[in-house]
Amino acid sequence: MDLMFTEGDRAFREEVRRFLSDNTIPEIRQKLAEGLELSKDEIAAGTRNLYKKGVPTWPQEYGGTGWTLVQQYIFEEEVRAFPALVKLGMGQDLVGPVIYTFGNLAQKQYYLPRIANATDWWCQGFSEPGAGSDLASLKTRAVRHGDHYVVDGQKIWTSSAHYADWIFCLVRTNPDVKKQQGISFLLIDIKSPGVTVRPIHLINGSHEVSEVFFDNVHVPVENLVGEENKGWSYAKYLLNNERFGDAGVGISKERMRRALELAAQTYVGGERLVDQPSFREKVAELEVQLKALEITQLRAIANASKQQQGVQDPASSILKLRGSEVEQAAAELLMVVMGPNALPYTPDEELGSRNEPPILPRWAAKIAPTYFDSRAASIYSGSSEIQKNIIAKAILGL
Amino acid sequence: MKFDLSEEQRLLTESVERLMLDSYGFGDRRKYGGEVPGFSEAMWERYAELGLLALPFSQEYGGFSGGPIETMIVMEAFGKSLILEPYLATVVLAGGLLRRGGNEAQKTELIPLIVNGRAKLAFAYAEPQSRYDLFHVETQAKKQGTFWALSGVKTLVLHGNVAGKIIVSARTAGGTREKNGIGLFLVDVHAPGLTRRPFLTQDGLRGAEIALENVRVDESNLIGDPEGAFPVISRVADEAVTALCAEAVGCFTKMQAITLGYLKTREQFGTKIGSFQVLQHRAVDMLVELEQSRSMTLYAAMMVGEDNAIERERAVSAAKVQIGRSSKAIGHQSIQLHGGIGMTMEYSIGHYFKRVVMIDTLFGDADHYLRRLAALGGLRSESIN
Fold first, then answer.
1. Which of A112, A273, B103, B210 could form a disulfide with B154 if both were Cys (CB 3.0 to 4.6 A apart)?
2. What is the largest CA-CA distance in chain B?
């Protein structure tokens, strides 16, 4: 048993660091460091650079790097620390694996290279106004007419829809069977006639998610992934991938680093906040939780091969649930450090132009919005309560 | 990076788990607890036969040269059965002090006796005012010719009631709370001037209070530097804390399994209570605590061999914080989910609860170790390299 990374892993980490400093666009790095929103072109350019050696999480035959899970973990950790582009995108992370696992040859040949080189930007059409935690009750209909489906309905909470070229959707193709058995997985060109994207503004002032409306949208039948009415099993596969990668250790580490950096410049009662025992204990408490999460993530990676053989792994089951809590606690810690300075709301375009307290770094203006936004972590991708339902059933057998 | 056990470690796991399964059910434990020393001498012999008492010692003294992972494996299995025998006191604590601080003659004489099960030892570190500070030592050791004369009171001596020899920390120089000026002395329990008052612990184990009044200890029974024992004490305490974390993980594992079993069989309102969402979510909360505790115990076991004291102490402190917090969380949930039956002496869950809560108090509770971790600069968020 050995928790330490091998010589090979350490060499790989060095290689990643070199790669990132050679291949990250300085403006993007700067914007990420300050927590500013990136434009679609910046995301696309950043992604193309980042994936010069292939998509980190994909097998080599589909344009991936073929890296081991440990290497993927190291890459992700270094990308976040640098920081290089953190938004790996739903094409690479979510729909790509579905296409190379369940798609046909033509789909693999057409879509995968375009995802890998960031030609196409994807978004996820799962949630609906009446289907949130109860995802399988979704109502968006796809009715087959000859060589195409006619899609009518509405999706909501669609991340990056305003940037997307394509949307992968769960649609109801059979309303007369048990709800999970009448769902299909459809790839839809978001510029098709009848598709409308309407922004939703979140409490932190950002526009990240949208509503997507489908009104008599014609979708060629060759855009169906796998078999008709088998979409729910592909969705479960996708959600498992999403949750596995969702411990957010890198995000939380970065938040902790920033909290300490800021606390070293913050004075309370004439003494640096970072030197005060009560604050240090608060930090240490969270560091313990973060370390426990990190080791659990590494255990899950080490167990992944067993899991692929169908053995349920309790360690990996708790990553999303626990990861979102730790991310939220870290965002809360940053708020504690900010104290009264969290008050001013500063849109991106005004950053630097207003009379910020000179002691604070520019990214500090994003702390309150990040904290507000962090509440979503325990809601999206299966709320904490849904995670608990799943764990109770799948792992505990209740 | 790998979390898999080696072939030898797997065999060790299997053999100790089989022994526990065959001979250490909850009913067996109750029986052993009623025997005269408060545990099973027969089981102690079985541990010796299996080589468990030889685990951490080097081969030249008849040991197996096992490391912290091996101790973790054994302690976790022991935790599942809530064993009563003085393994921590004899092998981990006193054995650790001998291993790290003893001279050749002491090791040659005593380690083989531990290994074959003929010697039980204890470590007297606590005093009425020391709380969790191992350097708070008022007990005096005065040099008189070729002897040392020890006087003072040692409390909470784990299994001090059955030890033939007790290793006592005593002050040879300096003030009460100085880290320098502490020595370790191997004291025979029959030495004139030594009295002991045995007691039962909350969790069914045994201990003793030791009073020393001018107890004469031969120079040959001084362990290591008479003024410089603290680093050895501190290091062995880190090893003991890591072992206790593993024991707690064993307890937690069993508490979770017992509670799940209850949720799946107990019926109310015409259905299994495990079908209720509120109870399911509590059971998941227990799983989360268990898995985080397992992770932190692995972390401590992998770091406790680290020679860099700060790195080692940070990791061990962090693990003890996790275990302390989880002891309460898992303990409270498991009692609550059982309802009234969980409060009874005849049912097992309460005994596990008591053990893990007492583990929290040994060497330092979660709050103590959190303060220690904070004072050491925290874990910091750098990656494991």
1. B210
2. 79
